[in-house]
Amino acid sequence: MRTRSFVIGALMAAFVLAGVASYYASAHPDGLEYVAAKTGFIDTAEDHAASDGPMADYSVKGVDSPRLAGGLAGVIGVLVTLALAGGIGYAVRRRRPDPESTPEPTPEQTPEQV
Amino acid sequence: MHVPDGFLDAPTSVVTGVVAAAGVALALKGARRELDDRTAPMAGLVAAFVFAAQMINFPVGAGTSGHLLGGALAAVLVGPFTAALCLSVVLLVQGLLFADGGVTALGTNVTLFSIVAVGVGWIVFRGLLAVLPKRLPTVALCSGVAALVSVPVTALAFVGLFAIGGQAPVSLGAVATAMVGWHVLIGIGEALITTVVVSSVLAARPDLVYGARGVLTSRPLQIRTGEAAT
Q1: Residue B164, domain CATH
Q2: Which DSSP symbol is given to B5?
Q3: Segment A32-52, tens digit of pLDDT
Q4: Mutating which of A24, A32, A94, A110 best tests the B interface, going by the most B Cβ atoms within 10 A?
Q5: Which ipTM did the prediction report?
Q6: Which of residues 40-79 of A touch B (CB under 8 A)?
Q7: Chains A, B: CB contacts under 8 A, how many?
Q8: What is the mean pLDDT of chain B?
């Protein structure tokens, strides 16, 4: 698979998960919240400093449809995460091939994969 | 398993903040050995995918749910240091933009996700791969087992922090038992997702999977012809 196809495929998967599938996610408390409630320390949780934020709890404020508000928040989150982590990845990478630690080209790599 | 503000007291949060900052600094140095021009795009992709996957809570019974931590998954795909950076970015975005995971608890969450989950996932993965046949299906299998182990161990690490800085007088034994029990179940989901995703990337581009590097280079050269080569 070409790198471009792979990148597009991976991004599509992320956008579909965050933008569409997230609407159908379980609304039950997660393992930690559940245990905190059962064993009696859930009340020590404080309100989040950003709980009034424009995208608090994965819902864009001012968008009426919950499906759209959540999906939009998911897509924005994917884009911000991609930009931040992608930027860090490019900033710290080795720019020139390093003969000592770069693995030999493998039989799996056909020329069009580059 | 995002820890909200308030579960742990201020001194504990300060200590986990220092541990997290040291871990991120170490990861920034280490990631340089893992990323080159060819694999650099994987950092952004893996972080974005983990963010998306963490939005999908799956039910684990009795009114409880869980979602992917992604520590083992990211470690196998991009290497442990880059994985720690990816998870830290995800937690930062979740905590600041979406009010998921506390702000003063950010250090705690980075410690749990980026250091414990990634570290345990990577160690279990490498340990298993060292004793099993070096083949691509083994890489996917080891990823799944590493994912399964990483979740309850991370839950136990939270209990350890709670023992030091917990803000409520509750039975530690009860917290530990419940946390590990539920997170073994969540770990099964983590293992399934991790195995499927690692298998998919291995099928598409095995050369981009950091954890498969030794496996790929140890395979003998095969002569293939025509269409079969793709």
Answers
A1: 1.10.1760.20
A2: T
A3: 999 999 999 999 999 998 888
A4: A32
A5: 0.91
A6: 40-41, 43-51, 53, 55-58, 73-74, 76-79
A7: 255
A8: 94
Distance, in angstroms, between B124 CA and closest chain A CA? 23
B222 is a domain residue = no
SS3 of A35-89: HHHHHCCHHHCCCCCCCCCCCHHHCCCCCCCHHHHHHHHHHHHHHHHHHHHHHHH
Q: List, for residues B143-169, the tens digit of each pLDDT value.
A: 999 999 999 999 999 999 999 999 999
In chain A, what residues touch B63 (CB-CB under 8 Å)? 28-29, 34
**Model pLDDT, residue A49:** 84
How many domains does the structure of chain B reveal?
A: 1
- In this predicted structure, the answer to whether residue A101 has a pLDDT above a threshold of 80 is no
Which position has the higher pLDDT, A67 or B216? Answer: A67
Q: Domain containing B136: what range?
A: 10-215
Q: Measured between alpha carbons, how far is B161 from B98 in angstroms, rounded to an integer?
A: 24
* Segment 195-224 of chain B within 8 Å of chain A by CB: 204-208, 213, 216-217, 219, 221-222
Q: Residue A56: which of A42, A41, A38, A69 has the closest Cα?
A: A69
Residue B82 placed within a domain: yes
Q: Which residue of B has its CA nearest to A79?
A: B48
Q: Indicate the pTM of the whole model.
A: 0.90
pLDDT band of residue B220 (cuts 50, 70, 90) is low
Helix (H, G, I), strand (E, B) or coil at B61: strand
Instruction: With respect to residue B2, please indicate whether it lies within any of the assigned structural domains.
Output: no
- Chain B residue with Cα closest to A36: B175
In a domain, B154, yes or no: yes
Please indicate if any CB of chain A lies within 8 Å of the CB of B229.
yes
Domain ranges of chain A: 1-26+54-93
Contact flag A25-B56 (C-beta cutoff 8 Å): yes
Within 8 A by CB and 6+ apart from B44, the residues are A81, A82, A83, A85, A86, A87, A89
